[in-house]
């Protein structure tokens, strides 16, 4: 997807060092600002996402602005709600040098298009249950709070997603796609 001089595409193995550095920079900034951060990066999980074409990057003028991963199934976190009708957003990492430039709005727009084009009903994500500020931020984009969940310790879960209390957030695509021009669908 290319809009207003930024481009969203899959990350590749050539992006590896930039992606890992981006995770480190973002974790350092969040920790310095007093927010909860991942204890470590699940490099195997990130590598798996890249290999499977599930990690994306936002690039503008050669700068890596943001990376995010998607899943089309998330049974460990969404359990009985996981019915193959949603795109799940994970590991959204914004380059601290480009914070405040609405990177999440770009991710969300891309996700809405992806969901509509693939006949999905929802965009879902999770975040730390005790971070009311980030929950309110995602709700400002139309996400509804669905409930809290305690993740397990399953080996298929990325390391940073194990044993966490998370808030489940969901956006219904049937009522939240009005900002997408019909010619893009």
Account of the 3D structure:
With 185 residues, the protein is α+β, with helices and mostly antiparallel strands. It has a single domain, classed as Aminopeptidase (3-Layer(aba) Sandwich). The chain is built from 5 helices and 8 strands, in the order ββααββαβαβαββ. It has helices spanning 16-32, 43-51, 75-78, 103-117, 132-139; strands at residues 2-3, 6-10, 55-60, 63-71, 86-94, 122-128, 144-150, 165-172. It has an 8-stranded mixed beta sheet.
Topology:
Elements: E1 2-3, E2 6-10, H1 16-32, H2 43-51, E3 55-60, E4 63-71, H3 75-78, E5 86-94, H4 103-117, E6 122-128, H5 132-139, E7 144-150, E8 165-172
Sum up the overall morphology in one term.
Answer: globular
Radius of gyration over C-alpha positions, nearest whole angstrom: 16 Å
- According to CATH, the homologous superfamily is Gcn5-related N-acetyltransferase (GNAT)
- Give the name of the CATH architecture: 3-Layer(aba) Sandwich
Main pleated-sheet profile: 8 strands, mixed
Q: Please give the domain count.
A: 1
Q: What fraction of the residues are assigned to beta strands by DSSP?
A: 25-35%
Order of helices and strands: EEHHEEHEHEHEE
Looking at CATH, which topology would you report?
Aminopeptidase
Per CATH, the class reads: Alpha Beta
Query: How many strands in all?
Result: 8
Amino-to-carboxy terminus distance: 12 Å
Number of helices: 5
Strand order of the largest sheet: 1-2-3-4-5-6-8-7
Q: Roughly what percent helix?
A: 25-40%
What structural category arises from helix and sheet content?
A: alpha+beta
Low-confidence stretches: none
């Amino acid at each position: 997807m290319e809009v207003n001089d930024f481009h969203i595409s899959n990350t590749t193995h050539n992006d590896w060092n930039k992606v890992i550095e981006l995770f480190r920079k973002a974790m350092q900034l969040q920790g310095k600002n007093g927010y909860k951060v991942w204890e470590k990066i699940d490099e195997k999980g990130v590598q798996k996402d890249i290999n499977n074409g599930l990690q994306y990057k936002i690039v503008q003028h050669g700068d890596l602005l943001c990376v995010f991963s998607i899943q089309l199934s998330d049974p460990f976190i969404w359990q009985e709600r996981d019915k193959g009708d949603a795109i799940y957003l994970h590991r959204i990492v914004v380059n601290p040098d480009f914070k405040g430039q609405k990177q999440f709005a770009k991710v969300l727009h891309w996700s809405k298009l992806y969901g509509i084009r693939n006949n999905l009903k929802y965009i879902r994500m999770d975040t730390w249950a005790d971070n009311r500020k980030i929950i309110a931020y995602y709700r400002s984009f139309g996400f509804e709070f669905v409930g809290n969940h305690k993740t397990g310790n399953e080996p298929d879960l990325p390391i940073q997603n194990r044993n966490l209390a998370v808030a489940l957030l969901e956006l219904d695509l049937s009522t939240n796609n009005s900002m997408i021009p019909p010619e893009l669908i």
